[in-house]
Specification:
This protein is 38% helix and 22% strand. It has nine helices and ten strands. It has a six-stranded mixed β-sheet, with helices on both faces. A four-stranded antiparallel β-sheet has the order 2-1-4-5, covered by helices on one side. Strand 4 and strand 5 form a beta hairpin. The chain is globular and about 50 Å long.
Length: 269
């Protein structure tokens, strides 16, 4: 809504590992209800930025704000409790657990806590809460069309289905912001189309704000509201997909085109 703070603000983020600069003075914001994508060549700093947002890394300089609250010093579990969910480029499921149990793990931040409160709540209340969480998890399972594998052991599933289960677990957190790190990596065309559809539906039907890293330019340009481009840890462009794709700096850095591009020349397929 107008006047609301951005869901996410990255304010002059820099990240160094010894003498290596992974990010340099990167600022951007993600508005409520957006699909915001970060693209760039390998080693551009995309995953480093997501790790700064999720709390896996703490930036050397700068701040991360979630709906106006400075979360820079908070650990990943505290940020998750405040509503930052994420998936990983490399799958992070519990392979020995069922699909249903993997997704239920995403609900643990929403469970009531505290010993005394728990003792009082347990009588007549715990079973009701458990049923409510199960119902919400089943809704997510239906939404992502994984009913047929809900009782299967996660480690036995195909790669595409495991990616979908990981998305389900992140959604189960009921996040204000969901971070998707290469959600289509390693998928075939049909699996990519399904995943893109689920991301758009989560955004449009469930009102979920999405920050996504993705190498598939076709997907990025089709479903993103805005795109930011990183190159060697610096922001070189930000805007609508069309404006970013037409930017000569982006075409030079990301698509490897020469400096003497003619304005308006079509981008190679």
């Amino acid at each position: 809504m107008a006047g609301d703070p951005a869901v996410l603000e990255a304010d002059r983020i820099s990240l160094r590992f010894g003498g290596v600069r992974a990010l340099t003075d990167v600022s951007f914001s993600v508005g409520r209800g957006e699909i915001f994508s970060i693209i760039g060549p390998n080693g551009a700093g995309k995953t480093s930025m997501v790790n700064c947002i999720s709390g896996r890394y703490r930036p050397t300089e700068g701040r991360i704000l979630l709906e106006g609250r400075d979360v820079t010093g908070l650990r990943p579990n505290r940020r998750a409790a405040l509503g930052i969910g994420r998936t990983f480029q490399n799958l992070a499921l519990f392979g020995h657990m069922s699909v249903l149990d993997n997704i239920m793990v995403g609900r643990h931040h929403l469970l009531r806590t505290g010993f005394l409160r728990g003792m009082v709540y347990w009588v007549g209340g715990a079973q009701t809460e458990e049923l409510a969480h199960r119902r919400e998890v089943e809704e997510i399972i239906d939404f992502l069309e994984i009913q047929h594998v809900r009782k299967a052991t996660a480690g036995t599933l195909s790669y595409g289905l495991r990616k979908r289960v990981e998305l389900a677990r992140a959604v189960a957190l009921k996040p204000r912001l969901i971070l998707l790190d290469e959600p289509m990596a390693g998928m075939n065309l049909e699996e990519k189309e399904d995943m893109a559809r689920f991301i758009v539906d989560l955004n449009e039907e469930w009102g979920m704000t999405v920050l996504m890293i993705e190498h598939d330019m076709g997907v990025v340009m089709d479903i993103s509201h805005r795109v930011m481009v990183l190159d060697f840890g610096r922001k070189i462009a930000e805007g609508t997909p069309e404006a970013v794709l037409a930017d000569p700096h982006v075409r030079r850095a990301y698509l490897g085109e020469a400096d003497d591009l003619v304005e308006g020349e079509p981008v190679p397929a």
